[in-house]
Specification:
A hairpin with an 8-residue loop joins strand 3 and strand 4. The two termini are 56 Å apart. The chain is of the alpha+beta class. The protein has an eight-stranded mixed beta sheet, with helices on both faces. A five-stranded mixed beta sheet has the order 13-12-14-15-16, sandwiched between helices. The protein has 15 helices and 16 strands. Helix 5 runs parallel beside helix 9. Bound molecules: adenosine-5'-triphosphate (ATP) and magnesium ion.
């Protein structure tokens, strides 16, 4: 028996955590300004929250961690994505009755999918996602894309591209589905097993196939564009006009058919085109969905729009562009304990500094003066505070401002004042 993390999962270690915290802080800040509120849904749900009827996606059909406890008839699934849980909660908590629709929400947290692990593809990974439910306006499609776009731009990412397409409304999609069935009819037997399943369940998803991708039959497939009715064309035009207005660069990609079977109208993927990215280049992706709220027992015609961003992939994209996500924060003070007899005083000093907001630490191992000074360096402490027998007798300590290379003898009850002086002179 060995003890290692399961394949496709990782520890995020203390030495790397500042990146994650920086991202999470920025997420909160962005969502606050855009007026999106956080929602936290359970990490597992009843299986039928994710597995809805005849869903054709790989995620639902092949990648779910589903389990049933002994003596229980309830089938539960670790969430592979955020949208379903949010839509379920929207209905369960009757948010559709709120006066101020649409509900604008965001979430951050781990998702689980049983995939083949590779760079940028994990079995537990973290997503930041947004969902806007209860209003259908192309301007909301634009707003959500703008939120994600301004977020990645603020991080400093430059090699990003929006790929966008429309799947049209139900009528347009039904016409397109028929055209695709007709087109693939004679060749479906030669295609991959997943495509055969998709042919029956949702022929649009055949276009998403990574196995048969380069076959002529794929390249010559009919185009969605030719099956859009006027109102679907108009909707898409308004989305693109909005992106133009905000100066968000995009490329219309008529092969983009991603996502839930419930997707209607707008679908998009925001990808990094940086060479270092490898195959997993989509940083965030989403689209408009109809029918999900109704599926969970809510009112009809409650449309939603949302996307999800893989934070591990976001970090890879930042690294590829040489973006430093967080600087290491040093200590404000390291208190050197120069004799066992002064431990009590040191404890008092450390506690008082902390109570005043100074990030402070001290030695607990009885190490030598030299070793403790090394720690001052290693922890990038701004100040070293030296406390020895003599000091306590005199009622003073020595504060060394490491940055300015200055030393001060300070009375025990004036340590915080001196620290304030040192730190205020920074501004
Ligand atoms: P892919 O085609 O790469 O499998 P997907 O369509 O399954 O993507 P979504 O379900 O739309 O992806 O998830 C949104 C985002 O979440 C992706 O763009 C990606 O950044 C991230 N993501 C999805 N699956 C994984 C995973 N297994 N590991 C890490 N990040 C992931
Ligand atoms: Mg996937």
């Amino acid at each position: 028996m060995d003890y290692q993390v399961p394949r496709g999962t990782q520890d995020i270690l203390p030495k790397d955590i500042s990146k994650w915290q920086k991202l999470e802080d920025m997420i909160r800040q962005f969502c606050y300004v855009y007026n999106y509120d956080e929602i936290r849904t359970p990490i597992f749900e009843h299986t039928n929250v994710f597995k809805r009827g005849n869903d054709s996606s790989d995620m639902v059909n092949k990648e779910m961690y589903t389990f049933q406890l002994e003596n229980s008839k309830t089938s539960l699934t670790l969430r592979p994505e955020g949208t379903a849980g949010v839509a379920r909660s929207f209905v369960e908590n009757k948010m559709y009755g709120n006066a101020d629709l649409p509900a604008k929400m965001y979430y951050v947290g781990p998702m689980c999918r049983h995939e083949r692990p590779q760079k940028g593809r994990m079995r537990i990974f973290n997503q930041f996602g947004v969902e806007v439910i209860g209003a259908k306006s192309p301007l909301l499609d634009v707003e959500t894309i703008a939120l994600g776009w301004s977020f990645v731009s603020a991080l400093g990412l430059k090699d990003m591209k929006v790929l966008i397409n429309t799947l049209g409304d139900d009528e347009s999609r039904a016409a397109y589905r028929e055209a695709l069935k007709e087109h693939f009819k004679n060749d479906i037997d030669t295609m991959c097993p997943d495509c055969k399943r998709r042919y029956e369940q949702n022929p649009l998803r055949i276009l998403d196939c990574k196995v048969d991708h380069d076959k002529d039959i794929m390249k010559n497939a009919p185009k969605m564009e030719d099956y859009l009715n006027d109102s679907s064309k108009q909707y898409f035009k308004e989305v693109l006009d909005g992106l133009d207005m905000l100066g968000i660069p995009y490329e219309v990609d008529d092969r983009l058919v991603r996502g839930l079977d419930y997707y209607t109208h707008t679908v998009f993927e925001v990808v990094s085109v940086n060479k270092e990215m490898g195959a997993q280049s989509t940083v965030f992706a989403g689209g408009r969905y109809d029918g999900l709220v109704e599926y969970f027992g809510g009112p009809e015609n409650m449309s939603g729009i949302g996307w999800a961003m893989g934070l591990e992939r976001l970090i890879i994209a930042c690294e590829a562009e040489g973006i430093q996500l967080a600087d290491e924060n040093g200590l404000d003070a390291y208190v050197l304990c120069l004799s066992d007899k002064v431990r009590k005083e040191v404890l008092g000093i450390v506690t008082e500094l902390r109570a005043n907001g100074y990030r402070t630490d001290t030695d607990y191992l009885g190490r030598s003066y030299k070793a403790q000074f090394k720690t001052v360096d290693r922890k990038h402490a701004r100040c070293a505070i030296l406390v020895g027998d003599q000091d306590i007798e005199n009622g003073t300590v020595l504060i060394k401002d490491v940055k300015k290379q200055e030393k001060y003898t300070v009375a025990l009850d004036e340590i915080v004042d001196k620290m304030d002086e040192i730190f205020n002179s920074e501004e």
